[in-house]
Amino acid sequence: MTRTFRNVIRLITIAQTLARHNAIEALEAAGLPRPLVWALRHLESRPPNTPLGTRLAAAAVALGPTFIKFGQALSTRSDLLGAEMAADLGQLRARLPPFSTQESKEVVETELGAKIEDLFATFNDKPAAAASIAQVHFATTRDGHSVAVKILRPGIEQAFALDIDLLLWLAGWIARAKPAWRRLRLQESVETFASMVQVEMDLRMEAAAASELAENFEDDTSYRVPTVDWPRTSRRVLTTARVFGTPIDRVQELASAGHNLDKVLQNASQAMFKQVFRDGFFHGDPHPGNLFVGSDGAINAVDFGIMGRLDKQSRRYLAEMMLSILTRDYEKAARLHFQAGYVPKDKSVAAFTLALRSIAEPILDRPAGEISIGRLLGQLFH
């Protein structure tokens, strides 16, 4: 089967799925020929009573892991999609349909070369969490340790390779059909996305990341990383110590349990700043589902599939940029962007200074408790 024919067939399936979820307008925006859009509209149920982002999220779940993951990545691009749609796609971070326990056990036994009962004293049949790439089961080892066993979805590597080929082909088509969209560099975005997910699909890399992060915080009692169980870890299986705690966004539960919320916030923010500015190695997906507050108030992190690195020079630029923005020295912040190479040298420093002011002032004018450094940085780098 030729690449074009295979991708056209898959594209038709995607179009039908979008139609069933009343999301055909997404294809229209992407440049699909209008006659084809009209032909697909008869599959839609009328009228859609939910936002487009919510409908796209439902369609992504129906289309499978690659599109779920792609939707999750897009949910961080409010500059591209708008805040409302990005927030709606953020629903894809919630619990997703699991694969069967039998499949989970087969992957574990194949990867680790032993029977489940020989590897674990107990293995919970019900997944504790299911995501686009893997799901987690709680278990107990033969020596009595509580562990979390993360298992890659069966067949995901092959499905991902085919879907990435489709997305690259589609990005090229959109670039030709919509010249104005070329500035978005869709093909480069897909390639970056593919590289990121390839790393996530090798759970040994996640184990190594967890191990490195744990070493960086071995003398810090306010932030903990679960210990990797290396003998029970492979490319498709990752076993770590089980984390106990309350999700960091359950504020009422934390308060009822007697936690000092200011201290919890301080622990979380200091841990992130240490990762970025002290170590240059940081958790790249610190959403509330990946951060738990222990009984002692310490932050317990999970899911190390997405990590980031900054060299010393980049850390220095970032720190100076943030300080310049927070002190409203926009010209200095602009020049730092140029020095770091984040902005082409042929652009106007004065114009960029004005642009920085337009982004920062609405945020910095808020009360201190409402200022989001993450939002500020996100807008600066988009």
TrEMBL record:
Residues 92-336 form the ABC1 atypical kinase-like domain. Belongs to the protein kinase superfamily. ADCK protein kinase family. This is ABC1 atypical kinase-like domain-containing protein. The lineage of its organism: unclassified sequences, metagenomes, ecological metagenomes.
